[in-house]
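Lab notebook page, bench 4
Experiment: in silico fold of construct C2
Operator: M.H.
Input chain length: 238 residues
Purpose: comparison with the prior construct
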Amino acid sequence: MRFDQNPRFRDWRPMYDVARPALLRLTGLAPAALEAFYAELPPLHAALRQEVGRRPSAGALVQAPLLYLLVRALRPRWVVETGISSGYSARLILEALARNGAGHLDSIGVDVFGMRKDRGAPDLAEAGLHVGWLVPDRLAPWWTLHLGTSQERLPPLLAAGRGPLDLFLHDSLHQYPTMSWEYATAFPALGPGALLASHDVHANAAWADFLAGHALAHDEELDHDLGVVRLPAPSPAG
């Protein structure tokens, strides 16, 4: 499917309207403040439609505009995502980091693009594309791409740490062992008030089991199958 064939890419407003109550709860923003961040998205959307509308959207996390809003609102200093295809989610996260003027995204993924000319319709396939092709050079200062599996790349990345991890997003292999392992591996690095997020939370019981096992409550589902939970922050002194 091309990007512009996906109704959730063509029009971001319905997705935002569905997720808006959850975004307000997660961020603690006043409604007017969240709307102000949403107002930044239409120019980005118009540019993306011109840039990628007729290209295949294989593997794209369609809720990426909602990640933009979370990053703008909470201003994370360090974000890690696993699983990257076109780089649609990375692009929106990075646009938000650049707008914030601070922060860094580390993306982990294997260099395999989901559509090739010898595997599918030639008019939809794109030759020579690599993972992350949607990220332009101007966003490079805020981004590092780590090629490999999460099992290979995530532990040393976290060990080398940029400080407390503010947002972790799972979007790699949506199977119980991988999802559970990624949550458990990233969790100790998350700082107070950080976000743990996962795509395909209904693929299996990994998300629900992990939250229950770590007494994490008040998780939210943004639009469809993107789960987010915010870790407790320390109570103010006194």
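Observations: The longest strand covers residues 190-199. The radius of gyration is 17 Å.
Next step: discuss at group meeting.
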